[in-house]
Specification:
6 helices; 43% helix; mainly alpha; 2 strands; 122 residues
């Protein structure tokens, strides 16, 4: 399957059919664009704009005025959290099984202001 998330997503939706998964198609397309960052030589030559936001409203509009606009990569983290939650739900997997072994600070960061996953009770 290579690293093509669109193909992987189509295969996942085929294996775990659910009408609720289609709402994540845009997030998959957005994540798939980040594949280019795995090969940074081109990005170093032409530059890039990368944004990670905890809310859609926090994304900065595209900056104009460049001689040629560098590639822009924007990711809204709650969209990814929602996608991951839907993957766990569709595949009938318990996220706690995977998250309970996380060490700090990863645990704290995962559960910080996260509407999709909450820390298990101690």
């Amino acid at each position: 399957m290579s690293h093509n998330l669109k193909r992987l997503w189509a295969a996942f939706k085929g294996a775990y059919p659910s009408p609720l998964l289609a709402k994540h198609d845009v997030t998959i397309t957005t994540l798939n664009k980040f594949e280019q960052l795995r090969y940074p030589d081109a990005e170093l030559a032409k530059g890039s704009i990368v944004q990670f936001a905890r809310a859609r409203a926090a994304l900065s509009p595209s900056q104009g005025g460049w001689p040629s606009q560098p590639p822009a990569y924007s990711l809204v983290l709650p969209d990814v959290d929602s996608l991951v939650q839907s993957v766990f739900d569709a595949a009938a997997r318990n996220p706690g099984f995977y998250f309970n072994n996380l060490q700090e600070p990863a645990r704290g960061i995962l559960f910080l202001s996260n509407a999709h996953f909450t820390a298990p009770a101690a």
